[in-house]
Amino acid sequence: DIWVSVLARPALFLQLEHRISQRFGVALDSQNVLACDDLAALTLVIKRSSPSLSPIRTPEYQSNKPKSELISPIKATPYQAQVWLACQLSEDPGQFYHQAKLSIPNQPTHSDVQWVLDQFLSQVDWLRTVVLKEEGRLVAYLLSPKRLSSATQATVGSQSLRRDGLEAAGKVLVSTDMLAVLYQPEPPRLVVRMHQILAPEVLFHLLTEDLQLAFRAKHDGQVFDVSPSLSMGHTATICRLPSDSSVRAYWTETMAEASADLKLPLDRPRTRVPTFSSACLRFDLAQGVIRGLSCPTEGNPVAPLGLWTALVGSYLGRICGSDDALVDVLLYHSVCRGEPYTLFPGHLACPLRVPGAASASSLGDLSAVLSQQLQRSVDHLTPDHDVYAGLPRPPAHPLWHPVRVSVAVDPVEWDAEAQSHPALWHDIIFRICHSGPSPGMTLQYNPDLFDSATVERLAANLLYFCQVALTNSPPLTTVPLVCPAEEHLLLEKFGRSPSEYDPSDTSTSVISLVRDSVQRSPHTVALESHLETVDYTEMDARVNSLARALQHRGIRVQDRVAVIVESRPATVMAMLALWLLRAVYVPVDCTLPEQRQRYTVETAQCTVVLNMTDTRNS
């Protein structure tokens, strides 16, 4: 059996209970387990019983296998799936939460487990990203919480990092509720242990990259071996150091100094996002400060201790309530390197190279103009504002996908509402920042909609706009949003045909090429769909018949004809018939809302609307 443990709000619990009971025919055995002021984590745990020899149905189960194979002893590989979600729940202290256990009978399959997880996640529409890992029978959903308060730490005792035996394992350099750093002399290595909600893979890469940079600068280009060891309960990342005594002494002293900056109790509420102060990093908290050490500029562009402090502080900041810390750290990396910097999908930071120091007011004006121009572009994609006024926009259609854009500048937030509620997360968030050693730009984007190459091209255009506007001080409304490289790409590569087209040469037109195919292979299949198959002879006859009918209706050269289309052979025939008459073919997707179809027809100034969705031979 699979036992499902759910810790959730009553509304979410009732929806999940109803769906599970419908699928498996059993009810959840629930109980009220706690009431607290602020619970910011929801947990769904699905686990199989301890390892034993028992007949279980594997994901590779085939229904045609003989019964003897199904009941033969199979080594049951245990697995555990956890979902950590973050939300802002009701502040009502009397709010109860439900914990339930469900025993799913009939030897549940891997798909049953996946189904329960999907049902749980489907109720959380504000969920940003879920990292799905599959290692054999292991299914793990890991998500760094947006907000995890001290109340949650007190309520769910198992969330704190287990430090049992750390003193015996090595010298503890840094120790908090969520992270511990140890130095082990034999063999020389650093061991970093952290709780899984710290997104250990991301933090591990950030940490080791910074340590490698500093180590190469300190020890004449040497590198140390990095060997990560990941586990579900906590993460231990091991950085093996050279055995040289001076190297060990240097890093022992370094981490000892860092430990003084990193001892931060999590019960101190966060009051503001971290800010940069000249050449050092400074994180201001309600009752304490995480200091960043000075950043040397010669020989080592990245301060190892300062960035190390910033990294851990940023992730503690994410738990306390803001993603801005991570964005600032990436921007700091980008400014120090002097080039765009990204670590994982969803974030990109770029430095702004402008002469002199750009003031916050000029950046604010620039951000406002960018916001207006980008919003104007969105308005062209969503013309019917009155239709959706005050209402959520309908699901985006593949042919009509307006991108919601927000623009922010520090210290002025142009889209503060989107930052305060995770449900209002936009597909793209563009920021101009003036909180570091030089201005910078950050892009947060939805990696499910945009690949990294597309975002980098967008960032190049925005950087060009900002640099031209801040360098030459032209009227901001006259600065183009497309950089020269993008303009060349659009006009020369995408817009130029592989060969020159002469309109007077009728032998190169589509109609003439189709006629050649009709004469050369009349019985070859020209169009095929799940409804019908048409050869060139039949297609030619139907195209000519439709062209004569349209000509009889008064269609002339250069007339614009809107065709309500769907994916059928008749659509292609309508296009060829209009081109045969030298009319203009204007396709209108039949699945778009009626207001959108009407807008397309009116904007194109079509004289005739041809509906190809009702009849087969139109």
From TrEMBL:
InterPro entries: AMP-dep_synth/lig_dom (IPR000873), ANL_N_sf (IPR042099), CAT-like_dom_sf (IPR023213), Condensation_dom (IPR001242). One of its GO terms (biological process) is enterobactin biosynthetic process. GO terms for molecular function: 2,3-dihydroxybenzoate-serine ligase activity; phosphopantetheine binding. The keyword Phosphoprotein applies. Residues 515-610 form the AMP-dependent synthetase/ligase domain. The keyword Phosphoprotein applies. Residues 76-328 form the Condensation domain. Keywords: Phosphopantetheine, Phosphoprotein. GO terms for cellular component: cytosol; enterobactin synthetase complex. PANTHER family: FATTY ACID SYNTHASE, NONRIBOSOMAL PEPTIDE SYNTHETASE. This is AMP-dependent synthetase/ligase domain-containing protein. It comes from Tieghemiomyces parasiticus. The lineage of its organism: Eukaryota, Fungi, Fungi incertae sedis, Zoopagomycota, Kickxellomycotina.
